[in-house]
Amino acid sequence: MFDFRSVWDVVLLVGLVVAIAPWFGAYLGRVYMNRPAFGDAILAPIESALYRLLGTSPRSAMRSSEYMLAVLFVNGGVFVFLFVFLALQHALPLDATGAPNMHWTLAFHSAASFTTNTDFTHFTNESQLSLGALMVAWPLALFLSAATGLSVAAAMVRGFVRKDGTLGNFYVDLVRTMTRVLMPLAFLLALALVLLGVPETLTNYAIAHPLTGGTQTIYLGPVASFQAISFLGTNGGGFYSTNAASPLANPSAVSDLLGTFAMMLIPFSTPFAFGQIVRRKGEAWPFMGTILIVFAIALGLFVAYQAAVNPALAGLSGLGPQTAGYPVGQETRFGLTDGSLFQVVSVYTNTGANNMQIGALAPVAQLVLLFGMFTQSTPGGDGTGFGMLLLFAILGIFVGGLMVGRSPEYLGKKVGTGHVKWAALALLTHPALILVPFVLAVAGGFVTVASGSLPASAHTFTAVLYEFTSEAANNGSALGASSFNDTTWFFNIAGGLVMLLGRFVPIFAMLKVGGMFSEESVLPPGPGTLRTASATFTVYITLFLIIVSVLLFLPVIALGPLAQIVGGP
Predict the structure, then answer these.
(1) What are the distances in angstroms from CA 509 to CA 258, 398, 502?
(2) Could you tell me the end-to-end alpha-carbon distance of the chain, in angstroms, rounded to an integer?
(3) For 213-240, what is each residue's pLDDT tens digit?
C-alpha cells in the first residue's frame, strides 16, 4: 500500500526551493549585472587580480560571435586536456589501482561527455578510471561546464537590456560564476555531505573483511567534494559507477534530499535571475509557472505508475506482486516518493545522477523521463535550460503574434524572423541529433532492435532512443545497456559528436538571439502590447512547449515506451 505520508517530504522540499529561488535568483541577477552583491569586499579584489591575469576587464564587452569564440576556446581547451589525460592516465601520477589508458574512441566520448556537462560514461569508474582523473581532470570539467552554461544564459538575457550589440565578457562571467556561485556553494555542500557520512579522503581504497569471508576492495577518494559539484553543476557524473545509488556517495535519506535540493537550486532560481537582470521581476513567474506545472505533472505520473504493478514483471517467478510500489531496480532505502523525486529532478534538471535502474521502471515512468529530456527546459541544466525555455517563449510569442495579427515583441523588443530562425535551429537540432544516429545505428547493424516479442523489441528501441536522447540533451542518465552494447567504437564516436553538437549549437543560437536583441532599441508599451507577466501567458507557454515537444517526438514515443505498454507482458 502506498504511504501518502511520504508525500510531505516532496511537498516540503519543493516548497523550500520555491521559497528560496526568488532570493537566490535575485542574487544571481546582481552577480551577472555587476551590481552590488554579498561578498564584494572580499571577492572583488580577487576577481580584479584574475581579470588582470587573464588580460581582460569587465569594461571589455563582446558581441555574440566574439562571446562564442571565447566559449569554444575555453571548452576546447578542456576537451583536449581531458582527452590527453584519459588516453595517458596509466602513465600519469595518482593511478594506484592501475587503471589502464583509455582507447582513443572511449577517451573521445568521455572528454566530450564531461566538457559538455553531460557526464555520460561508457566505462566503469572503479576499474577504468584513475584517482588522478577523479581528482584533477573531472573536477575541472565539472566546474567549467556548469559555469559556461550559466554565463551563456546571462549573456543571452543581457540582450534585452543592452542597445549596443554586446552581451558582456565571457571570461568575466566565467570568473564571477566560479567565485560568487559554484565554489562557495560546492564548499558548503561538500562540508554538509561529509557531516552526513560521505567520504572525503586522499586514500585510494580500503580493504574490508565481510562476514561471509574473504576481502572486499572499497574505493575511496574525495567523494563529497565530487558529489557536491556534480549536483550543483547539474553534471551528474558519479564518483562510483552506481552513481547516487551507492551507499558511500548517498548514505541516507537526508543526503538524498540534500542532493535533490542542490540539483534544483540553480535551475529553479534562474528565471528570477532573468527578472532581476531585465528589472521586471514579474516576468520570472510565467517561466517558473511553466516549470512547476510540467514538473508536477511529470512527478505525479512517475510516482503513480511506479506505485502500480508493472505488468511486465507481475508474472515472473520469484517476484510476485509488487509491494509498496517497489519494482526491480527501485531504491528501497529512501521510499518511493523520495527516490522518485530524486530521479525526476535529476533528469528534468539534466543532471542525470541515477539512484535507481531506469531500465526496470514502468514504461510510462521511462516516458516521463524521456519527455524531460525532450524539452530540456523544465527546468533543464544550469543556464542552458533556461536559455532553451526562453527560445520556446520567443517562438511562442512569434506564433501568437501572427495568430492575432500583432507585431510580435517581447520586453519592448521586436521578435523578427532572425530570432525565430535561430530559435528554431536550436529546437530542431535536438531531434535531429537523436534520430539520425539512431537510424544509422540500426541501419548500419551496430545494434539490433527487433527481438522475439513486441515488448522486448520496444524495450531495446527505448534503450537506444534513451541513450541518444540523454547525450543530445547533455543529460547523462542511462536506461541501461543490458539490451545492447554501447561500448563499441560506433557508440563512442557517434555519442561524442552528438554531445558536442547538442551542447554548442544551441549555445550559439542563444547567443545569436541575444545579440540580435541587444542591437534593438526598447519600444514603449502600447495598447496592443502582449502582457507576458500574466497567468494567461503562463498557460500559453506551457501548452506551446508541451505540444511542440510531443509533435517532434510522437513517432518514437509510439514505437518505444508506448509499444511496451500495449504489447503486454
Answers:
(1) 34, 17, 11
(2) 23
(3) 888 888 888 999 999 999 999 998 888 8
Q: Are 241 and 121 in contact (CB under 8 A)?
A: yes
Neighbours of 195 (CB within 10 A): 11
Give 145 or 5, the one with higher predicted confidence.
Answer: 145
In this structure, which amino acid lies at residue 306? Answer: Q
The CA distance from 139 to 232, in Å, is 12
pTM exceeds 0.85, yes or no: yes
Indicate the residue type of 304: A
Residues 176 and 101: their CA atoms lie apart, in Å, by: 35
What mean pLDDT is predicted for residues 9-27? 95
Task: List, as own/partner pairs, every contact residues 86-90 make where C-beta atoms lie below 8 angstroms and the sequence separation is at least 24, other chains included.
Answer: 86/110, 86/111, 86/133, 86/137, 89/129, 89/130, 89/132, 89/133, 90/130
Q: Is the peptide bond before 379 cis (omega within 30 degrees of 0)?
A: yes
Does residue 409 sit in helix, strand or coil?
A: strand
Rg for the chain, CA atoms, rounded: 23
Average pLDDT, the chain: 90
Residue 216 confidence (pLDDT): 81
The residue among 93, 74, 75, 73 whose CA lies nearest residue 85 is: 93
Q: What is the pLDDT of residue 8?
A: 87
Beta-carbon contacts of 537 under 8 Å, excluding residues fewer than 6 positions away, are 286, 530, 531
DSSP letter (8 states) at residue 180: I
Helix, strand, coil percentages in the chain from 3-state DSSP, rounded to 5: 65, 5, 35
Q: How many CA atoms lie within 13 A of 542 on its CB side?
A: 19
The count of other CB atoms within 10 Å of the CB of residue 266 is 30
> What backbone torsions phi and psi does residue 217 show, to the nearest 5 degrees?
-90, 120
Look up residue 283 and give its three cell numbers.
Answer: 516576468
Cell of 160: 534585452
CA atoms of 236 and 227, how far apart (whole Å): 8
Cβ neighbourhood burial of 45 (10 Å; 0-12, 13-18, 19+): exposed
In total, the chain counts a number of residues equal to 569
- All 3 cell numbers of residue 111? 572528454
Domain residue limits, the chain: 381-567
Backbone dihedral angles phi then psi of residue 216, each to the nearest 5 degrees: -140, 130
